[in-house]
Design a protein that fits this description.
- The complex is a heterodimer of chains A (297) and B (466).
- Chain A has 297 residues and is mostly helical.
- Chain A has one domain: MetI-like (MetI-like fold, Orthogonal Bundle), CATH 1.10.3720.10.
- Chain A has helices at 2-36, 54-59, 63-96, 102-114, 117-128, 134-143, 159-183, 188-197, 201-212, 214-239, 251-261, 265-289; strands spanning 39-40, 49-50.
- In chain A, α4 (102-114) packs across α7 (159-183) and α10 (214-239) runs antiparallel to α12 (265-289).
- The radius of gyration of chain A is 24 Å and the shape is flat.
- Chain A starts with a helix and ends in an 8-residue tail after the last helix.
- Chain B starts with a helix and ends with a helix.
- Chain B has 2 domains: 55-184 and 348-396, D-Maltodextrin-Binding Protein, domain 2 (3-Layer(aba) Sandwich), CATH 3.40.190; 186-346 and 404-464, D-Maltodextrin-Binding Protein, domain 2.
- The chains are: A mainly alpha (297), B alpha/beta (466).
- Chains A and B meet through α1, α2, α5, α10 and α11 of A and α1, α3, α4, α11 and α17 of B.
Chain lengths: 297, 466
């Protein structure tokens, strides 16, 4: 009894610093966000006015917010689907096949991930340039020189997809490395026996590789949701600033615009609350939907 | 027992480590402070970031200034000049390109600067937020003060008109809250060399403008481009003035009911709708923070003729490649109404004192000092021009081109901006009036939709005005 009491105290002392930091830097600010979303407040003065759920009521009638919401969901869905697919294919090829320059490809795919967002936005601004950008120049071969240029960042129907492409390009390397790591842990013997049984490469991928890295994929799905929300803000801020006319507004860029530029800090926090609940809920949902019996080797 | 001893020992070591880490940091800070102190003492007060305890009885005045296009050095000179006439004061200067990010965390904690130089219309919206929150000190008495070291009263020295606008009296109640600082006329920039070469003259009316547009189109040159839709503030305000006079402009700025649907305002909306046909087709794609210089480059490359901008443009594009024979030209926005004069919006930056500032009296003294000959000279050296009588005479030839735009009654000066309201969630004129221009240009929104959207926003903001 005495022994376990001492042990408990020891554990308590050990985790205390982490708990204190967690409370100060995570718990209190989160509670603050929830609390401030109930006030009409500009962010500076002492005249905070308690308005209850009014901010949320305005929010649910705000067309611009719905537009940002739609854009964010489109982004999360498309970026996740494409990045996941490409990263899995590249990882499978690089871990299972013997190809020349394997290490070169690993590095080349990973490089976009270590570039800062500002650099990425500059690269893609150059690619999307309507006059002499890479994309329009290549397309001019097929469309003829006199065709009017495609405005990748100017056409409101296209611009969000232009951002999505940049985000996928940026994210593939990171997830590829994660999948590579878990794929390399799968014992070679499983593939050998599958070969003997006559299973083809594609069958092996779906029957062996995918089930065995399932836990890993589930974790990355949560990452996709969180990082899409965060990355899209950075990219939008650097590249289009929500324009043209709100066509690329996403969750956090709209929140920033309202909290600071439009002096409605409380309203911005209400958006923050919705984003928080949404990403929390979506992650939980994805987690639930992808629950499988864990396979071990 | 042995195990317990080890665990206790570990705990003690960890605690000890934490303690030493903490004290170590503290000592370091103290040392740093001491070093700074001695440095400050030895240089006899030239150090600007001096800790409070050092100066003893010296009063500390915290000045925060935006490092804009004119650079940050001039503020150091200003601080020194102010300390010369007020030896008992120590100016603690904070100058930064993103001054809002530097000072606002401390402001949220209740630690306010005494004087702030930061204009309206910036993305972080600090000035607007404090205005909307009633966090500014009235400066009407500063305008009646004697300028430190001089005989004149502040308001007698300021150019006429500058103190009568919403740009200085944001609540439209005759009380000055912003001190007008560096001003710059906005208008249309063009390549004078191109017009000379083609034998085209600068259009004085919009009819001539469209004529020139058709002529230029035949040669593959567009009439118009714009950096970002945000630049339409100056353009639209000037056009509103020449369409319905200063009365229309002021009513629009104070959200009068139905003002955006009057025939005069409609003429302005339709003008921009027509301008869409003459705008360089790739403009919208580059009208963002990352690429707006590409739109400005269109002027230098002779791909477009006119671009609305302010006097900082030549400086911004100084190192950009230019076509042969390039020469900056600058003109006011042609009049919308047939019998009106061309007009030009005057952009000016503002200085203000937070209501929570601790040294308000000295802050007012500092604000008044900004209009002394000494201060104006320091600013003018950095090409920052204040609205003080006679200052523009001391400018170099290139800058005079811009500041003489109003001379001889050639153009009407338009000043001010939208009146401050309490914040309305999700609604802003920037979105409804300016950012929508991109959609009008690309044809996603019709002029009528744009116009009714602006009127709806105006209705909402009017209700929020007090």
């Amino acid at each position: 009894m005495k022994h376990s009491k001492g042990r408990g105290a020891f554990i308590a002392v050990c985790v205390l610093p982490a708990v204190i930091l967690f409370v100060i830097f995570m718990l209190i600010p989160t509670v603050n966000v929830f609390q401030m979303s109930l006030y009409k407040w500009g962010g500076y003065s002492n005249n905070k006015e308690f308005v209850g759920l009014r901010n949320f009521m305005i929010l649910f009638q705000d067309d611009k917010f719905y537009r940002a919401f739609q854009n964010s969901i489109l982004l999360i869905v498309l970026v996740t689907i494409f990045t996941l697919t490409f990263a899995l294919i590249f990882a499978a090829v690089l871990s299972r096949e013997k190809i020349k320059g394997q290490n070169f490809f690993r590095i080349a795919f990973y490089i976009p991930n270590i570039l800062s967002v500002v650099v990425i936005s500059a690269i893609f601004s150059a690619i999307y340039d309507p006059g002499n950008g890479l994309l329009n120049s290549i397309l001019a071969i097929f469309r003829g020189k006199d065709a009017s240029p495609i405005l990748w960042l100017g056409d409101q129907k296209i611009v969000i997809y232009s951002l999505i492409i940049a985000m996928i390009w940026q994210a593939i390397g990171y997830y590829m490395v994660m999948y590579l790591a878990s794929m390399s842990g799968i014992p070679e013997s499983l593939y050998e026996s599958a070969n003997l049984e006559g299973a083809g490469k594609i069958r092996q991928f779906f029957e062996i590789t995918l089930p065995l890295i399932w836990t890993n994929i589930r974790i990355t799905l949560t990452f996709f949701i969180i990082s899409s929300i965060n990355m899209s803000f950075l990219l939008v801020k650097a590249m289009t600033n929500g324009g043209p006319d709100g066509a690329t507004e996403v969750f956090l860029s709209y929140m920033y615009g309202q909290a600071y530029t439009n002096s409605s800090y409380g309203y911005g926090m209400a958006i923050g609350v919705v984003v928080f609940l949404f990403s929390f809920g979506l992650s939980a949902l994805v987690n639930l939907a992808t629950r499988r019996e864990t396979l071990e080797f | 027992m042995k195990r317990k001893l080890i665990s206790t020992l570990l705990c003690v070591t960890m605690a000890a480590c934490m303690m030493t880490a903490c004290t170590g940091k503290g000592e370091k800070q103290d040392n740093a402070a001491n070093e700074k102190t001695s440095a400050a003492e030895s240089t006899n007060g030239t150090e600007t970031n001096t800790p409070e305890e050092v100066t003893g009885e010296k009063q500390i005045l915290k000045v925060a200034a935006l490092e804009g296009g004119y650079g940050g050095e001039m503020w150091e000179e200003i601080a020194k000049a102010f300390e010369e006439i007020h030896p008992e004061v120590k100016v603690e200067l904070t100058v930064d390109k993103k001054i809002e990010d530097v000072i606002s965390p401390a402001m949220k904690a209740g630690d306010y600067p005494d004087v702030v130089h930061c204009a309206t219309g910036r993305e972080a919206g600090l000035t607007e937020t404090l205005t909307k929150e009633k966090g500014l000190l009235a400066l009407t008495d500063v305008m009646d003060m004697r300028i430190p070291g001089e005989e004149q009263i502040v308001k007698d020295k300021i150019l006429p008109g500058f103190l009568d606008t919403l740009g200085t009296n944001p609540y439209n109640d005759g009380v000055t809250y912003y001190a007008p600082m560096f001003y710059s006329p906005c208008g249309l920039f063009y390549n004078a060399g191109l017009l000379k070469e083609k034998g085209w003259s600068v259009p004085a009316t919009w009819d001539e403008m469209w004529e020139l547009g058709d002529k230029a189109k035949a040669e593959g040159i567009s009439l118009f481009t714009y950096p970002t839709p945000g630049y339409f503030d100056a353009f639209l305000f000037a056009a509103l003035e020449s369409s319905g006079g200063v009365e229309l402009f002021n009513k629009a700025m104070t959200y009068e009911d139905g003002i955006w649907e009057t025939p005069e305002a409609t003429a302005v909306f339709e003008l921009i709708g027509k301008l869409a046909d003459y705008t360089e087709p790739t403009t919208v794609a580059n009208a963002n923070n990352d690429n707006f210089t590409k739109n400005q480059q269109l002027i230098l490359d002779n791909k477009a003729i006119f671009c609305p901008n302010g006097t900082w443009l030549p400086g911004e594009m100084a190192d950009a490649p230019k076509s042969d024979g390039f020469e900056w030209g600058f003109t006011a926005v042609p009049a919308v109404a047939a019998d009106a004069k061309p007009s030009s919006y005057t952009f000016f930056e503002q200085m203000w004192i937070p209501a929570e500032a601790k040294n308000q009296e000295m802050a007012k003294e500092f604000a008044a000092f900004m209009y002394s000959d000494k201060a104006a000279g320091i600013f003018a050296n950095a090409n920052a021009v204040q609205p003080i009588k006679g200052v523009s005479d001391s400018l170099n030839a290139e800058n005079q081109l811009y500041y003489t735009i109003y001379d001889g009654d050639a153009a009407v000066a338009v000043m001010g901006g939208f009146a401050a309201t309490t914040p309305v969630e999700g609604v802003s004129m920037t979105d409804s009036l300016f950012n929508k221009v991109n959609s009008v240009m690309s044809g996603d929104v019709t002029v009528e939709e744009w116009q009714s959207g602006v009127e709806a926003t105006s209705d909402l903001l009017r209700e929020a005005m007090e």
